[in-house]
Amino acid sequence: MAPHTSNSTDEQRKLLCALLGKVKRTLLYKPVQSMDIMLLPSTSDVTLLTYETSSFNISFTEKADCESRRDELMEMIRNHKPLVTSVSRVRILMIGPVGAGKSSFFNSINSIFMSRITSKAMSGSAGTSLTTQFRTYPVKDGREGKPLPFVLCDTMGLEEQSGAGLDIEDISSILQGHVPDRYKFNPMAPFQPDEQKASRPASLQEKIHCVVYVIDSTRISLMSDKLQEKLASIRRKVNSLGIAQIVLMTKVDEACPLVEKDLQSLYVSSYIKSKVQEVSSRLGVPVSCVLPVKNYSQELELELNCDVLLLTALQQMLNFADDYLDDVCSMEDNVF
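RESULT FIELD:
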């Protein structure tokens, strides 16, 4: 087949180099690792046609495509049914350092389904955790809508010092379904269930079905050894229970100026790719389990590309929770 020649301008070439870094530039309609990219001739900018990973497949060629993808994701989430009939709503636990964006993720998802910016969960950038209670947040499909098939569980932020932030023993109790909504955390003393509750195991409906580690992409390289070890201890506990795990890499717009300017640049940013790989290495999770997102924080209106990123991450959490529930069913079948 004859080689493809590009009619791209100097401005396009400079933008492409900024996005991809130092790569050999000959043909750009062939796989570049996990991406397929094409320059459209006679245009003033680079148009991203398709980005594919094992986690998602998104097209952003036109606003209509983005709206269609957002609506498709919202419908998939609305119609999601957990694999186990005894579980009506998937419980997703958010864990992460102070200020990483756990509460903001809930606010962002809630905003999408409410069709306006909301701030139900307290969020911010204080030096210590603004979340002091264990909160379980259902999300409704609109103001008068029915509850959606998931609950986002928010926790106190992790801190590197012992006796500060969320205690690992508290996490163990949460995972096993013993901690009630609005329980106030005490960093000096882990949760103790009363004797009646301690004597019976929690139902599958009360347990956590997917754990999400929320990591600030601007602070990955600054993560201390103590905090990294704390996260490793939590992962070991979650692994022992067989619960599905995902990493949510937040604040991608703050990490990369190109992404701040245009969120679609996320998919061709070599810097964001390097951050995904760094998170994967530090936390010991596959690259395909690291999902970059931008939470709503200072916006006054919803934005399509932001919605698609957030909903894609949520859909993947539901998929992973189903994998866990499937394993639970298989184990029960083997027992009987």
